[in-house]
Amino acid sequence: MNPVSEAYRSNHLQPNYIFPLDFESVEDVVPDSHTWNSPLNMFDIDESSEHVIKSVAVPVIDLDDPNAVKLLGQACETWGVFHVMNHGVPLNLIKDIESESRRLFSLPTEQKLKAIRSTGGVSGYGLAHISKFFPKKMWSEGFGIVGSPVEHARKLWPDQEDDYFRFCDVVEEYQKEMKKLCERLMSLMLSSLGINTEDPNWTGSTGEPKDAQSLLQLNSYPVCPDPNMAMGMGPHTDSSFITVLHQNGPGLHLHSNQVGWVEVPPLQNALIVNIGDLFTILSNGRFVSRIHRAGVNRTRHRLSVAYFYGPPMDVKVSPLMKLVDPDHPPLYRSVTWNEYLAIKAKNFDKALEMVQIEDGKSIA
Ligand SMILES: O=C(O)CCC(=O)C(=O)O
Ligand SMILES: [Fe+2]
């Protein structure tokens, strides 16, 4: 038996929603396990038109613009997604994270499987976490990093110290820059809602500010023989406060109730930001998390790098006091990120509804 099949077999206890397809062995057809050909009936999306519109442009926010706060607020209220320019993240670092990511995913399958993530774990190689909610598998592979990447990097490049050092250096630098950018964006977005981040309690905590939590997720979408039949990443909303995304080519699709699926191609030197469910709760529904997904293509190996930024795990997130009054009663009960992830794991597309307050009571 070849070593890859052996590795898949010897890990048979791992649920199969963690294992990506062995893309090295794919020939000219999309296997039935990866053929998305029936309606999903999720998020109440109208599935009659799968056509992806390319001519609608999401807002572009230049952080050097004196009107950035106002424009950011408008973009968050209307779109929930925007491109950000003059974000301060060195462009070379974005190139470097992309090339390190390519280096990782170009390793032989057998090697990547040495860093497979554990059941219930977040860090390591594997299919995106949301794969268990879909009847068919996604045409992608991912690598999650929480905190230091050293442990998994050493498994990927066991005899090449320079290789894993280089990977870790770039990842750590990127995490640092992303954290800085997310803190800045959060503060500007809250200002647009009239919230001063110097107010204590803005995340619900008192005393010493605690460190936000984050997850860096590298995504790889190999070329696909029949892109119309496959899905890179199924429709979902992110659970974070905000997510910052870099993509090396088109593939991100955003859902709009008015027009359906809209493609969000990369914009040179810009990053994409989208609102996650926890910001919807924090803003009492003013900024809404958008449903998005990733398509695949026939000729180009697409890579994306997503940084999910959220509150410290034990901090309760609830609608900000300043946004609640008799005309705007609280729409959501308070939850920690951990609690919310558990609710999402059970209810997926209905997770936000589960923390909604109806007649003064929540249903979860
Ligand atoms: O690759 C993309 O464009 C989307 C990735 C994404 O939505 C995610 O990682 O949550
Ligand atoms: Fe996402």
TrEMBL record:
One of its GO terms (molecular function) is gibberellin 3-beta-dioxygenase activity. Keywords: Dioxygenase, Iron, Metal-binding, Oxidoreductase. SUPFAM superfamilies: Clavaminate synthase-like (SSF51197). It comes from the Eukaryota. The lineage of its organism: Eukaryota, Viridiplantae, Streptophyta, Embryophyta, Tracheophyta. This is gibberellin 3beta-dioxygenase. Its cofactor is L-ascorbate. It comes from Macleaya cordata. It is an enzyme of class 1 (oxidoreductase). PROSITE patterns: FE2OG_OXY (PS51471).
